[in-house]
Amino acid sequence: MSGWIALFGIGAAVFAALWLLGVPRALWSFVGAALMLGAAGYAWQARPDLAGAPVEAAKKAQPDEPVLRELRGALFGRFSYLDSYFFASDALVRSGDADKAARLMIGAVRSSPRDAGLWTWAGMMLAEADGQTISPAAGVAFRRAIVLAPEHPGPRFFYGVALVRAQQFAAARPYWEHALRLTPKDASYREDMVTRLALLDRFLALQAAEAAPAAGN
After folding, report:
1. pTM of the model
2. How far apart are alpha carbons 95 and 117 in whole angstroms?
């Protein structure tokens, strides 16, 4: 019972903060959707009938990534139903629970199987849950996103991000290059893509230069 009391208390505090900060009421529904999603997950997986007890945190919290979040919003849009899934998965990863974030996104693509944005972020969360490696499941999610939106730069760009995190730098390059070709000239995120691709090219060139003497011996 104490779990439900805490949950309702958090919800009331969040909406009170929104009111105090003057956030437009039009945006409250997105926050409400995220809270409802969290409540549904709590009801499904938790034991609300048990008394609360302190436990030692066993999962390592991850740092926030505002730049990547901004890019995601610029590529897939903001203030849509996607935000409730995106924000909830962000929170789970920050708290160190990438497995739950991956399960959340798997549920999201099941509910909206033709949404390339959800498939893309499912790939990101599956890769995160597998220690920032490209597991077969993550690869399937990214490729499905590309099939659903072949002319959209988002799926290829984030596939490249996941590959870079997995240290598959050469494999990431064609995805970033293709994403840049698909990006409109006046897109707000184009300069970021150009910079990332240039840095990746520089890194690959350094790798090749270091490998050349070893190959000659």
Report:
1. 0.70
2. 23
